[in-house]
Amino acid sequence: MKFRVSAVQYHLHTIQSFDDFARQSEHYIRAAEEFEADFVLFPEFFTTQLMSIGDAQGHALTINDLPDFTDQYRELFQGFAKRYGMHIIGGTHVIRREGKLYNVAHLFYPDGRIAEQAKIHITPSEITGWNMGAGEGLEVFETEKGTIAMLTCYDIEFPEIVRMAKAKGADVIFCPSCTDDRHGFHRVRYTSHARAIENQVYVVLTGTVGALPTVDLMRANFGQAAIITPNDIPFPPKGLLAEGELNNDMIITADLDLDLLYQVREKGSVTTWRDRRTDLYPDWK
User: Fold this and answer.
1) pLDDT tens-digit map of 128-174
2) Mean per-residue pLDDT over the chain, rounded
3) Is residue 200 exposed (0-12), middle (13-18) or buried (19+ Cβ within 10 Å)?
4) Which positions are annotated as active-site residues?
5) Greatest Cα-to-Cα distance within the chain, rounded to the nearest angstrom
6) What values do phi and psi take at 26, rounded to 5?
7) Which strands, in side-by-side order, build the sheet including 226-228?
8) Alpha-carbon distance 253 to 7, whole Å?
């Protein structure tokens, strides 16, 4: 099984309307369509761009206003997925449930279905700055191209949750991310490589670039997309199928071959998934 994935280094800048956001999003999706991508990944928190629209008095919106765009966002990306016939991981969008905010990754299927995965691990700044709630469970998602998981940014830094995703059958981890400096970026990037090696899975990673000068916690972004493989002979020596240029507005694309994953799990130079010492440490069933 082979399929093509694209990852968007989404450029954040001040906009004037929801239509501006829609046009920019569709630009990337049309670029992915030109590359004949089956999946396209947007970054974490890319919908915070909507906060820059401001209110009637010209003041920037707050994080508590962002869930008001949820219906428009879902309708927009559901329409894109159906129109362009691709799976879209619509980054993450902040929603409100029972008075609490959650950072939720959305998978839009070509047939109109929508699946969600709330971010499970919440950073200190997301708690203190935005009072963000944590997701309570992990799901994997069946698609016509294989089984995937959506783990957002900080989630990838926890080996247990990725091991759970692999145990549930995920072969590809899509990781929308948003980091504001080199330290945060490299934490996510390095651990994405570690998770690919540990679990013999692909990791598709991207982040925001640009800036939102009027939006709290989004004034700085440091991002780069990467399509990451296990480190074994069938794959590139650095475990990279593709990567973007740091902090540039762009999209990257590569083909994922699931058969290569199955081969290295069975008879690779190392067989990290099979060689787990579950007699010495817990495992996930």
Assistant:
1) 999 999 999 999 999 999 999 999 999 999 999 999 999 999 999 99
2) 96
3) buried
4) 44, 119, 153
5) 63
6) -65, -30
7) 141-143, 146-150, 172-177, 202-207, 226-228, 240-243
8) 7
